[in-house]
Design goal:
Elements lengths: L1 H28 L12 H23 L8 H25 L4 H35 L8
Protein name: DUF4345 domain-containing protein
Organism: Methylorubrum populi
Keywords: Membrane, Transmembrane, Transmembrane helix
Protein backbone atom coordinates (compact mmCIF):
# COMPACT_ATOMS: atom_id res chain seq x y z
CA UNK A 1 0.00 0.00 0.00
CA UNK A 2 2.76 2.46 0.95
CA UNK A 3 4.62 1.86 -2.32
CA UNK A 4 1.48 2.49 -4.38
CA UNK A 5 0.78 5.65 -2.37
CA UNK A 6 4.28 7.01 -3.09
CA UNK A 7 3.98 6.22 -6.79
CA UNK A 8 0.62 8.01 -6.92
CA UNK A 9 2.11 11.01 -5.13
CA UNK A 10 4.96 11.23 -7.62
CA UNK A 11 2.63 10.77 -10.58
CA UNK A 12 0.27 13.52 -9.37
CA UNK A 13 3.20 15.85 -8.69
CA UNK A 14 4.53 15.33 -12.22
CA UNK A 15 1.06 15.68 -13.75
CA UNK A 16 0.42 18.89 -11.78
CA UNK A 17 3.43 20.49 -13.45
CA UNK A 18 1.51 20.58 -16.75
CA UNK A 19 -1.32 22.96 -15.72
CA UNK A 20 1.05 25.11 -13.66
CA UNK A 21 3.50 25.62 -16.53
CA UNK A 22 0.80 25.92 -19.20
CA UNK A 23 -1.11 28.37 -17.03
CA UNK A 24 1.95 30.51 -16.29
CA UNK A 25 2.85 30.50 -19.97
CA UNK A 26 -0.66 31.72 -20.83
CA UNK A 27 -0.54 34.40 -18.14
CA UNK A 28 2.83 35.70 -19.36
CA UNK A 29 2.39 35.46 -23.13
CA UNK A 30 -1.39 35.67 -23.53
CA UNK A 31 -3.21 34.41 -26.55
CA UNK A 32 -0.25 35.39 -28.76
CA UNK A 33 1.65 32.54 -27.12
CA UNK A 34 -0.45 30.12 -29.14
CA UNK A 35 0.91 31.43 -32.42
CA UNK A 36 -1.18 32.01 -35.48
CA UNK A 37 0.10 35.47 -36.34
CA UNK A 38 -3.31 37.13 -36.50
CA UNK A 39 -4.17 40.36 -34.68
CA UNK A 40 -5.35 39.67 -31.14
CA UNK A 41 -8.61 40.90 -29.69
CA UNK A 42 -7.69 42.60 -26.40
CA UNK A 43 -10.77 41.25 -24.62
CA UNK A 44 -10.08 37.70 -25.82
CA UNK A 45 -6.47 38.04 -24.64
CA UNK A 46 -7.65 39.28 -21.23
CA UNK A 47 -10.04 36.32 -20.92
CA UNK A 48 -7.31 33.92 -22.03
CA UNK A 49 -4.95 35.26 -19.35
CA UNK A 50 -7.68 34.99 -16.70
CA UNK A 51 -8.38 31.36 -17.62
CA UNK A 52 -4.62 30.70 -17.63
CA UNK A 53 -4.51 32.01 -14.06
CA UNK A 54 -7.26 29.57 -13.13
CA UNK A 55 -5.32 26.76 -14.78
CA UNK A 56 -2.26 27.69 -12.74
CA UNK A 57 -4.39 27.59 -9.58
CA UNK A 58 -5.78 24.18 -10.44
CA UNK A 59 -2.26 22.82 -10.84
CA UNK A 60 -1.16 24.35 -7.54
CA UNK A 61 -4.17 22.81 -5.79
CA UNK A 62 -3.27 19.40 -7.23
CA UNK A 63 0.20 19.91 -5.72
CA UNK A 64 -1.43 20.49 -2.31
CA UNK A 65 -2.99 17.04 -2.61
CA UNK A 66 0.38 15.29 -2.80
CA UNK A 67 1.27 15.27 0.92
CA UNK A 68 -1.21 12.98 2.64
CA UNK A 69 -2.83 12.18 -0.69
CA UNK A 70 -4.87 9.39 0.88
CA UNK A 71 -6.77 12.01 2.91
CA UNK A 72 -7.49 14.43 0.03
CA UNK A 73 -10.33 12.62 -1.77
CA UNK A 74 -12.84 15.46 -1.53
CA UNK A 75 -10.47 18.08 -3.00
CA UNK A 76 -9.14 15.64 -5.58
CA UNK A 77 -12.67 14.80 -6.78
CA UNK A 78 -13.60 18.50 -6.93
CA UNK A 79 -10.50 19.36 -8.97
CA UNK A 80 -11.19 16.40 -11.26
CA UNK A 81 -14.74 17.65 -11.80
CA UNK A 82 -13.45 21.12 -12.73
CA UNK A 83 -10.90 19.66 -15.15
CA UNK A 84 -13.43 17.28 -16.75
CA UNK A 85 -15.96 20.11 -17.18
CA UNK A 86 -13.26 22.13 -18.94
CA UNK A 87 -12.44 19.12 -21.09
CA UNK A 88 -16.08 18.68 -22.04
CA UNK A 89 -16.22 22.35 -23.05
CA UNK A 90 -13.09 21.80 -25.16
CA UNK A 91 -14.72 18.71 -26.71
CA UNK A 92 -17.82 20.74 -27.57
CA UNK A 93 -15.56 23.33 -29.21
CA UNK A 94 -13.94 20.58 -31.24
CA UNK A 95 -17.38 19.55 -32.48
CA UNK A 96 -18.53 23.13 -33.17
CA UNK A 97 -15.39 24.65 -34.69
CA UNK A 98 -13.17 21.81 -35.85
CA UNK A 99 -10.07 19.95 -34.79
CA UNK A 100 -7.56 22.11 -32.88
CA UNK A 101 -3.79 21.74 -32.72
CA UNK A 102 -2.09 18.59 -31.47
CA UNK A 103 -1.25 20.43 -28.24
CA UNK A 104 -4.95 21.09 -27.59
CA UNK A 105 -5.82 17.47 -28.38
CA UNK A 106 -3.18 16.33 -25.87
CA UNK A 107 -4.74 18.67 -23.31
CA UNK A 108 -8.14 17.12 -24.06
CA UNK A 109 -6.72 13.65 -23.39
CA UNK A 110 -5.29 14.84 -20.06
CA UNK A 111 -8.63 16.40 -19.13
CA UNK A 112 -10.95 13.57 -20.09
CA UNK A 113 -8.78 10.48 -19.61
CA UNK A 114 -5.69 11.01 -17.44
CA UNK A 115 -7.23 13.18 -14.72
CA UNK A 116 -10.25 10.89 -14.13
CA UNK A 117 -7.92 7.86 -14.01
CA UNK A 118 -5.73 9.63 -11.44
CA UNK A 119 -8.87 10.38 -9.42
CA UNK A 120 -9.89 6.72 -9.45
CA UNK A 121 -6.36 5.78 -8.38
CA UNK A 122 -6.45 8.32 -5.55
CA UNK A 123 -9.78 6.91 -4.36
CA UNK A 124 -8.28 3.40 -4.40
CA UNK A 125 -5.29 4.50 -2.33
CA UNK A 126 -7.60 6.33 0.08
CA UNK A 127 -9.72 3.19 0.49
CA UNK A 128 -6.65 1.00 1.05
CA UNK A 129 -5.32 3.45 3.66
CA UNK A 130 -8.68 3.55 5.42
CA UNK A 131 -8.93 -0.25 5.44
CA UNK A 132 -5.37 -0.56 6.75
CA UNK A 133 -6.13 1.97 9.49
CA UNK A 134 -9.25 0.08 10.52
CA UNK A 135 -7.36 -3.21 10.63
CA UNK A 136 -4.94 -1.66 13.12
CA UNK A 137 -7.73 -0.57 15.49
CA UNK A 138 -8.84 -3.36 17.85
CA UNK A 139 -12.48 -4.31 17.78
CA UNK A 140 -13.38 -2.65 14.48
CA UNK A 141 -12.77 -5.75 12.40
CA UNK A 142 -14.93 -7.81 14.77
CA UNK A 143 -17.84 -5.40 14.43
CA UNK A 144 -18.27 -6.12 10.73
Amino acid sequence: MERERRILQRTVAVAAIVPVLAGLYGVLFGIDGLGGGTPVNVSADSHFRYLSGLLTGIGILFFTCVPGIEDKSRLFRFLTLVVVLGGLARLLGLYLTGVPSLTMLAALALELVVTPLLCLWQLRVARLARDAGQALQPGIGAAR
